[in-house]
Amino acid sequence: MIGLVIVSHSNKISNGIVDLCYQMAGKNIKIISAGGTSDGRIGTDPIFIKEAIEKANDGDGVVIFADIGSSIMSSELAIEMLEKDLQEKTYILDTPIVEGAVAVAVQACMSNDIQEILNVAEEARQTRKIS
Amino acid sequence: MIGLVIVSHSNKISNGIVDLCYQMAGKNIKIISAGGTSDGRIGTDPIFIKEAIEKANDGDGVVIFADIGSSIMSSELAIEMLEKDLQEKTYILDTPIVEGAVAVAVQACMSNDIQEILNVAEEARQTRKIS
């Protein structure tokens, strides 16, 4: 199953997203919180993210959700530190961190197809909340 | 100053968004967490949200950030319960809850113009994280 890593600048946000995803998608999926710095401050930490990616991977690869600014750069640095094999199946998704993670967690329980995951992430980015 | 109310299904997410917004925008603005149910479970609660809107309002109105599904409906119910005067200056923003709240918190510190707030929220919705 594809694993999820949540990279908010706040570990409260990341931990809350993990709770919400498990509530919506069930507990069969690996969703790892990598929010905040490793000592709990606001920020992001490439090494902390790298370790989360390794934990989230069960062989099928990992998708990363990031919030603002440097969370993307820290995630890119984390991917550079991975073994080549895992590097090639790790993706940063261009989707809102909360809304995208919930949608993808549900999808990842149904299918290992990375293209379908990317489509669901993009759909979450484009869906309007208020019609 | 326009106040912010954060309505995630998870109070960890809402509390984390408040922390992150204060970090980015400074402490001069009212940002109230109304995530989760009033007893801390995953969900949303119209009465809890109504009280948060009243706390966030200093006379200039309030904007609400919601995450998924019923958070919009609970926010709409909360607005219906408000006094008419506050009701008319409370808006639910169609923007990602984390990314939109941070962008709007920064903008709200600079201007009370609701149209500018709506524009910033829409920009946060449309901005791609990965170019």
UniProtKB/TrEMBL annotation, chains A, B:
Highest taxon of the source?
Bacteria
The record describes its quaternary structure and partners as: Homodimer. The dihydroxyacetone kinase complex is composed of a homodimer of DhaM, a homodimer of DhaK and the subunit DhaL.
Query: What general EC class does the enzyme of this chain belong to?
Result: transferase
GO molecular function, one example?
Answer: phosphoenolpyruvate-glycerone phosphotransferase activity
One biological process GO term for this chain?
A: phosphoenolpyruvate-dependent sugar phosphotransferase system
> Coiled-coil annotation: which residues?
none
Q: Taxonomic lineage per UniProt?
A: Bacteria, Bacillati, Bacillota, Clostridia, Eubacteriales
Spell out the protein name for this chain.
phosphoenolpyruvate--glycerone phosphotransferase
What job does this protein perform? Component of the dihydroxyacetone kinase complex, which is responsible for the phosphoenolpyruvate (PEP)-dependent phosphorylation of dihydroxyacetone. DhaM serves as the phosphoryl donor. Is phosphorylated by phosphoenolpyruvate in an EI- and HPr-dependent reaction, and a phosphorelay system on histidine residues finally leads to phosphoryl transfer to DhaL and dihydroxyacetone.
Q: Which PROSITE patterns match?
A: PTS_EIIA_TYPE_4
Q: Ranges for the PTS EIIA type-4 domain?
A: 1-128
Task: Please write the reaction equations for the catalytic activity of this protein.
Answer: dihydroxyacetone + phosphoenolpyruvate = dihydroxyacetone phosphate + pyruvate
Where would one find the signal peptide in this protein?
Answer: none
State the NCBIfam families in the record.
dha_pts
Keywords on this record?
Kinase, Transferase
